[in-house]
């Protein structure tokens, strides 16, 4: 019976996939209606500190020459300015650890303009290398050059501008002195909500996460580096998209990180270094310098993209990499950190999206094959968890049963039904199934039940699926809530912790 059910569902998924793929291909063909946005990582074009002798050859004029044809070919081109513009002077920062100081000559702003940059983040750890004089002069230089910029607290927290009839909003965040803080997520959400109310497309930049090649993974936790809180970049990126952001460009670790599609919006967690002349380490993966081009529709929804792989060479700036190392590394990390994301990245750097219905068919087909080979119960449980995660980011709608939207019980019933387990269509029916399990004994694949939003009621009103429970009782569960399908942790959510009712075991491990 289970296999028969899966065959029927797979046939249904095939028909859905055909229409979804056809519709998507039609959308891609209308490229002229799309908005193209390019993002690059850290830019430090050469420092005149301690003397002008530290500046690059030819006064830096050729640093961006190998990339500018691509950089110019977008509606918006963004980069992170890793240092201040200041010809001389400034208040040199003090620090306990080894310090680097980056002070670019004012005239170097012309190299950014010539290369096609429109939008600059000045929220990062080197913007205050020369104190307030450096920050103030950088703002002055960018403003007079006609570039759009943001990222300094109480100075330039947002930027709103219009190009070709499209109104853009931009904000930048970092954990550092003088910047708008990545660690204040509530403020970030308010900022983005405001920008979305005023603009068509909202672009968010963050300079966060621990640094170095050993920190190239998205941990989904708060990252500490040199005793500093560098933010929880996963939580931050999802929060700003929830608030209305359309594209999130990350940088800061000095190496590339994974990309993700969340609620149809594009996130890349680090674009690494792009053009950093002088004392930066550009050996191995530290030298990967991608140009990430994203196409979105006029609502901000991701349609397609391209990673152009460059390598940094000492004193010459980035050069095109025929081996596509940056694209291959972002592809590898994306598959490791976000295996269920709706993004597909080729070795050549082409970024496409895989429709939910196509993914559903693939997964159902795999489940059918597995069940036909007498999969063990423990393997079934693991597949249930992996299957459920592919719907992360799918929006919430009361009464919805999938696949474009879910409510809580619609999500759990849909997931278990695809493995042949009929658990009822609502929370009241589902809590009467299976075997009750106390909190301490919850295992992956168990259902977890909560009271409704009314604290005075003891009736079940919400349900999720347990995806982990460690030795300290930290229960993580995936569920459909007003934020869409997401993962929460019981110990970190007072709202759910005080509403917990019971657990329920549907599949017993053999």
Taken together, the total number of domains comes to 2
Give the helix level as a range of percent: 25-40%
What is the CATH-assigned architecture of the largest domain?
A: 4-Layer Sandwich
Distance between the termini: 20 Å
CATH superfamily of the largest domain: Metallo-dependent phosphatases
Q: Rg, please?
A: 25 Å
Low-confidence stretches are 1-29, 364-374
- The CATH class of the largest domain: Alpha Beta
- The DSSP helix count reads 12
Secondary structure tally: strands:
27
Shape: elongated
Kindly report the CATH topology of the largest domain: Purple Acid Phosphatase, chain A, domain 2
Mean pLDDT: 87
Strand content: 25-35%
Describe this structure in words.
- Helix 5 (185-198) runs parallel beside helix 6 (233-243).
- This protein folds into two domains: 34-341, 4-Layer Sandwich (Purple Acid Phosphatase, chain A, domain 2); 375-505, endopeptidase fold (from Nostoc punctiforme).
- With 510 residues, it is α/β, with parallel strands linked by helices.
- 27% of the residues lie in helices and 26% in strands.
- It is elongated and about 75 Å long.
């Amino acid at each position: 019976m289970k296999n028969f059910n899966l065959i029927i569902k797979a046939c249904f998924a095939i028909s859905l996939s055909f229409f979804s793929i056809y519709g998507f291909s039609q959308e891609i063909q209308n490229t002229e209606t799309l908005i193209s946005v390019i993002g690059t990582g850290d830019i430090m074009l050469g420092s005149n500190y301690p003397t002008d002798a530290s500046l690059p050859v030819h006064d830096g004029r050729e640093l961006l020459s190998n990339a500018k044809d691509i950089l110019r070919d977008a509606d918006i081109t963004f980069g992170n300015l890793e240092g201040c513009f200041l010809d001389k002077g400034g208040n040199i920062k003090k620090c306990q650890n080894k310090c680097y100081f980056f002070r670019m000559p004012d005239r170097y702003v012309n190299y950014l303009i010539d290369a096609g940059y429109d939008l600059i983040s000045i929220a990062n750890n080197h913007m205050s290398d020369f104190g307030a004089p450096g920050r103030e002069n950088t703002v002055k230089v960018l403003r007079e050059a006609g570039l759009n910029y943001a990222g300094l607290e109480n100075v330039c927290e947002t930027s709103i501008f219009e190009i070709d009839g499209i109104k853009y909003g931009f904000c930048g965040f970092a954990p550092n002195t003088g910047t708008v803080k990545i660690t204040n997520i509530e403020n970030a959400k308010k900022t983005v909500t405001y920008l979305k109310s005023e603009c068509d497309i909202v672009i968010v930049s963050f300079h966060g996460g621990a640094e170095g090649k050993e920190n190239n993974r998205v941990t989904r936790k708060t990252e500490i580096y040199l005793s500093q809180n560098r933010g929880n970049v996963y939580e931050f990126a999802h929060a700003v998209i929830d608030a209305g952001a359309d594209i999130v460009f990350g940088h800061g670790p000095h190496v590339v990180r994974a990309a993700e599609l969340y609620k149809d919006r594009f996130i890349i967690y680090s674009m690494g270094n792009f053009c950093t002349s002088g004392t930066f380490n550009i050996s191995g993966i530290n030298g990967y310098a991608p140009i990430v081009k994203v196409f979105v529709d006029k609502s901000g929804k991701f349609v397609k993209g391209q990673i152009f792989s460059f390598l940094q060479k000492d004193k010459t700036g980035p050069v095109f990499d025929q081996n596509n190392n940056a694209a291959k590394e972002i592809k590898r990390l994306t598959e490791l950190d976000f295996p269920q994301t709706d993004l597909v990245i080729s070795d050549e750097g082409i970024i496409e999206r895989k429709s939910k219905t196509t993914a559903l068919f693939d997964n159902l087909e795999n489940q059918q094959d597995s069940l036909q080979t007498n999969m063990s119960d423990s393997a079934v449980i693991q597949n249930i968890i992996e299957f459920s995660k592919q719907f992360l980011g799918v929006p919430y709608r009361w009464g919805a049963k999938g696949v474009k939207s879910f409510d809580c019980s619609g999500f759990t019933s849909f997931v278990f039904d695809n493995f042949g387990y009929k658990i009822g269509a609502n929370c009241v029916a589902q809590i009467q199934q299976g075997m009750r399990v106390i909190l301490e004994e919850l295992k992956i694949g168990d259902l977890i039940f909560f009271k409704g939003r009314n604290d005075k009621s003891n009736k079940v009103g919400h349900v999720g699926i347990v995806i982990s429970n460690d030795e300290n009782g930290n229960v993580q569960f995936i569920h459909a809530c007003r934020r869409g399908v997401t993962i929460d942790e019981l110990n970190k959510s007072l709202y759910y912790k005080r509403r917990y009712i019971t657990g329920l075991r549907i599949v017993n491990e053999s």
